[in-house]
Amino acid sequence: MAAFAFPKPPTAFAFDPSSKKTRRIEDPRHLAFIRLLPSVVSGEYGCEACHIRAGSAVHRKKWTGKGQKPDDCWTLPLTPEEHRQQHSGEELAFWRSHEIDPFELAVRLYEVSGDVQAAEQIIRKVRHV
């Protein structure tokens, strides 16, 4: 009897270690837009575009290490101090402590990229202001 090789069942690309490396998507206009917005944590202006390194199977976003940057759509506005806090510890704990789902928020801001008023309204709702 001949042996047949069965392919591995498909997995979410974001968590498949055998998947080929894909080129990250850069979007300098979106990064510039994010820097115009108030912080999603404090509401202060003068923000940096902060990449979310954590992963989410629901959003098909892979984890990225310190030597890697995620696609530019996965960014949120934070002040420089908040940005350091975001990356100094466990990132998802940082977001939980502020009761923010960073993945959903990044998706929503990317959907309105370029529209500052719409983005500010989204951020106010997230901040409960």
Automatic annotation (TrEMBL):
This is DUF968 domain-containing protein.
